[in-house]
Amino acid sequence: MLAALPLWMVKLIRWPRYLDLSLRNDSGIRKQDTVRVFSAVASSSIGEPIAFNFVRANWQRLKDYVGSVSTLNSILKVVTRRLNQAHEYEELKRFVSESCSDLGRPVLQVLERTAANVQWMEQNYQTIVKWLLAVDKSAPKVTDA
């Protein structure tokens, strides 16, 4: 059944399960590889919101399973590295204030990086889009032979 679906759709179905399995002792995924699992899922534009939403929905379970503040900070860092929209920053701030403000300086650095990403997008996104559109219009058109 999954073979007939586009790859991005298969990932939408499988990645939450993969994240869930990384938080179970009986899954075959070693506890020390949990950060790698979250990083792998969050490394694409499709997987990043899946990973971030999973972390928010399963924060207490994640804390109980990994136990280490350092590992929690690493997971939070990898699942938020691509955030660059104002609404994503607001969601992150809310999550940090409600659930993980006790993680110390590293979580503040995550907030700072996300704020910088948002600011960069606000300052540069439209300029880049305009430039790309202009380059596209001036590029020679390929015609069918």
From TrEMBL:
GO BP, sorted A to Z: peptide catabolic process; proteolysis
Question: Which Pfam families does the entry mention?
Answer: ERAP1_C
Domain ERAP1-like C-terminal stretches: 17-114
Query: Which GO molecular function entries does the Swiss-Prot or TrEMBL record give?
Result: metalloaminopeptidase activity; peptide binding; zinc ion binding
Q: Name one GO cellular component term.
A: extracellular space
Q: What InterPro entries does its record include?
A: ERAP1-like_C_dom (IPR024571), Peptidase_M1_aminopeptidases (IPR050344)
Give the top-rank taxon of the lineage listed in the UniProt record for this protein: Eukaryota
Q: Report the family membership.
A: Belongs to the peptidase M1 family.
Q: What is this protein called?
A: Jg3819 protein
